[in-house]
Amino acid sequence: MTTTVEAEPRTETVELEIRDLHATVEGKQILKGIDLTVRQGETHALMGPNGSGKSTLANVLMGRPGYVVTGGEVRFKGEEILGLTPDQRAARGLFLAMQYPVEVPGVSVVNFLRTAYKAVKGEDISALGFRKHMKEKMELLGVEDEMVRRYVNQGFSGGEKKKNEILQLAVLEPAIAILDETDSGLDIDSLKAVATGVEKLIGPSLGVLVITHYQRILNYIHPDFVHVMMGGRIVKEGGPELATELEDKGYEGIRQEVGLSAEEAGDDAASPGGSKA
Ligand code: ADP
Ligand code: MG
């Protein structure tokens, strides 16, 4: 009887589990107990005013230096990952698109992606094999040949940088992706192009945590769950309707509803119209 159980293929859903996470930056307590679970196949939106700690959470999840975890745990595929390097986390299938992507002078997008692919997948793919894989993803996302021949992010417009991040996401095929303000600084056409690209990648094998200040990206990427963060805590959670509610009330309205002082809520939840700026 037990043999049939053992013979079953492992098709467990990958989970990113964040439990009571506390973190400091430069000695300042930013995350004050975050609980959040993102599963493969789910789309979550994490929304919050500037300074609420969204990027800090993303950076802690990827293991960026300078962010000190002072409590709680983060499990990925059941394994505690806080002791792992960013590369090790990426190799396990966790992906982070940065709010401010870095330039890599002298390295073309295609070479960068191939190197990243080899590092993350641990596969030595041929140049030709990789081209084919990348071409498929470029077609899906509508990325031009010209872009992948250029040096990574050098002279890229805001829209091109974000498009490049989404191409990276498509090529690396992670189980869970964290997109930090993928919409920031984009005009409406670029936003639409980037967001519909993400929407195309969403499926049973990908879980996404979309971090955003604004509701507008959620017109294209439809979240199953919405979490509102203020002052380093998740103060309200719900389904897609919460994003609409937030749009109507603003962060200020939510702040008052949950009974946080302006000071506790973060930098701009307090300023009039801050959430709608
Ligand atoms: P959000 O992404 O929600 O706008 P952040 O996580 O960027 O918020 O910032 C939360 C708080 O942490 C802010 O008060 C910010 O000034 C502080 N902070 C974030 N990163 C750093 C850093 N590298 N050095 C100093 N303070 C930081
Ligand atoms: Mg941020």
What does this entry look like structurally?
With 277 residues, the protein is of the alpha/beta class. It has a single domain (11-276), classed as Rossmann fold, CATH 3.40.50. Helix content is 38%, strand content 27%. The protein contains 10 helices and 12 strands. It has helices at residues 2-7, 54-62, 86-91, 109-121, 127-141, 145-149, 158-172, 188-201, 241-258, 262-265; strands spanning 15-25, 28-39, 43-47, 67-76, 79-80, 94-97, 104-108, 151-152, 176-180, 207-212, 225-230, 233-238. The strands form 3 sheets. A 6-stranded mixed sheet has the order 6-9-10-3-11-12, sandwiched between helices. Strands 2-1-4-5 form a 4-stranded antiparallel sheet. A two-stranded antiparallel sheet has the order 7-8. Helix 4 (109-121) runs parallel beside helix 7 (158-172) and helix 5 (127-141) crosses helix 7 (158-172). The longest helix is centred in the C-terminal third of the chain and has 18 residues, at 241-258. The protein binds adenosine-5'-diphosphate (ADP) and magnesium ion. Magnesium ion is lined by residues 54-55, 99, 180-181.
Key traits:
277 residues; alpha/beta; Rossmann fold; four-stranded antiparallel beta sheet; 38% helix; binds adenosine-5'-diphosphate; binds magnesium ion
Short description:
The protein is α/β, with parallel strands linked by helices and 277 residues long.
List the SSEs and their pairings.
Layout: H1 2-7, E1 15-25, E2 28-39, E3 43-47, H2 54-62, E4 67-76, E5 79-80, H3 86-91, E6 94-97, E7 104-108, H4 109-121, H5 127-141, H6 145-149, E8 151-152, H7 158-172, E9 176-180, H8 188-201, E10 207-212, E11 225-230, E12 233-238, H9 241-258, H10 262-265
Parallel strand pairs: 3-10, 3-11, 6-9, 9-10
Antiparallel strand pairs: 1-2, 1-4, 4-5, 7-8, 11-12
Bound molecules: adenosine-5'-diphosphate and magnesium ion.
Residues 25-26, 30, 48, 50-56, 66, 267 line the site of adenosine-5'-diphosphate.
